[in-house]
Amino acid sequence: MSSLFARVFRQARITFEQTAIGDAKFAGHLNTLRHLLGQLTLADLNLDSSLVATETFQQPTKAPCTFVDVYENDRFAISVFVLRENYTMPLHDHPRMHGLLRVISGAVQIRSYTELARRDSVTTTSSMAAADGVLGSGGSAFRQRHVLVAAEPEKIISSSIGADSCALLTPDERNYHEITAIGGPAAFFDILSPPYNTNQPQHISFYRKVPVPRHLAELELGSPGEEKPLAPQPDDDRPRYVLESIPNPENYYCDTVQYEPPDFLYTDDDADRTSEGQRKRGSKKAISLNERRWISLPIVASFASLLQCFGGFPVLFKRLSFHAASCVRSH
């Protein structure tokens, strides 16, 4: 495990735990974190290169995406996503979040959008299907959102070293995006603050993009029938779209890989700052690793007792072999 990853982690704590967003120092801390991230590689995280191998994604049961949960507390989360070649992580949002994305293997294309206005309503999944030309009845209630956005320039980011290889989103800019792996599988390292599962009323939502005429795209989305023109933006020629929220896409699912955390991720002050009822997922991982080591002792002791009862390995092996053969014959 490299010292660079330790520096990235410490800077993330300084940025998101020890500095308020409104603090004058926040922008500087965020920029330092972005600069450090621009140097991070797959090897720095001690991740196996087979995660990003083309052969891995050729297995028939392999999901198009692999998720590695690295660290999470109530202020920020760190994870790694690996995408199959040409697979697109569906268009989704990051409500009220700061996020940094660093490609650590391969290359991705990122299409980002900045929110201008929104309108929420309640519909049903059946009415959405009918709008798509699919007939059906019933359907569950679904809170639908329409978001007027401005499209940002598309970016292609690779694992080359440099600050430009790290994408940034904020609560007000580029906080809707979709990500496509190009030229082969791609892996990216992700820091989000705050995480999705905090006590704040926020969760991930997925969207589809609906083109709209320019004159309609200039309307602010209030309540139905109450739309009003947006303030003029003469120098803003970014294309406008309406993003329509949809249920979780069926083609978005991930395999998960257990991450073995380095010691610096879980320090004593983490445990002190976290109550018994709000243990971090990462702390639970560290505990589970310890539990496995402790559990292994009685298992070994029990196996030794079993050997003694049966008279040693040869006798036990013969009895197990006989039992297995009997099971095969009975079927």
Automatic annotation (TrEMBL):
The keyword Oxidoreductase applies. GO terms for molecular function: metal ion binding; oxidoreductase activity, acting on single donors with incorporation of molecular oxygen, incorporation of two atoms of oxygen. One of its GO terms (cellular component) is mitochondrion. It comes from the Eukaryota. Gene3D superfamilies: Jelly Rolls. CDD domains: cupin_ADO. Keywords: Iron, Metal-binding, Oxidoreductase. InterPro entries: PCO/ADO, RmlC-like_jellyroll, RmlC_Cupin_sf. This is 2-aminoethanethiol dioxygenase. It comes from Anopheles darlingi (Mosquito).
